[in-house]
Known about the structure:
Layout: E1 5-6, H1 8-14, E2 19-22, H2 26-31, E3 38-40, H3 59-68, E4 77-80, H4 86-97, E5 103-106, H5 110-113, E6 141-142, H6 144-150, E7 156-159, H7 163-168, E8 175-176, H8 193-202, E9 211-214, H9 220-230, E10 236-239, H10 242-248
Parallel strand pairs: 1-5, 2-3, 2-4, 4-5, 6-10, 7-8, 7-9, 9-10
Amino acid sequence: xxxxxxxxxxxxxxxxxxxxxxxxxxxxxxxxxxxxxxxxxxxxxxxxxxxxxxxxxxxxxxxxxxxxxxxxxxxxxxxxxxxxxxxxxxxxxxxxxxxxxxxxxxxxxxxxxxxxxxxxxxxxxxxxxxxxxxxxxxxxxxxxxxxxxxxxxxxxxxxxxxxxxxxxxxxxxxxxxxxxxxxxxxxxxxxxxxxxxxxxxxxxxxxxxxxxxxxxxxxxxxxxxxxxxxxxxxxxxxxxxxxxxxxxxxxxxxxxx
Length: 257
């Protein structure tokens, strides 16, 4: 099974056979530099509250974005940002939701890449492609009713926000796991598999359990979703509406005294 996380060395060896997407702002992409062969799809261009469920941009917007940078459904896509991968992970989840089969997160980010690999300010000329969205290979998005029913099941609900946010209000029975706990400060990439497994096990988030992820607007859970897929978790559900929808629909919240 292909790993959903790509190491910098692997990417350096395969730059000619993959498509690389940089989701930073255009001024960073153009002014600071980017990976060789990368195209720029800024985060704000694929986030919308007027598209599909949650913050998904809508199939038409997504199709136009990918066609504009020359990506086809058969491409292997590797995504990065300069924020430990959390914005890039959101692109990855969006791609999976719209049926892209092979998309991966660069382990680390732009700053980590620059330590051992070259960057460029050259602009890549790409021809517009033809792109069609499809059903996801493995459906993973869940809605309000599914999450509400999960409260009374043996599923583990995971809140990936900071501790103070969790204390101000969280779903009943949810465990708190700040997504940044899974990131290594030194490498800027993921902690080792052993460290990740230990952190998750301490919270009761084990591979044998059904896991339901949420945060505020489904950005931070994107990173945690990638980590769990990377570790081989098979029952990972992604609440796209997250607390934005949950609160709007008067879902029950618990506060910590």
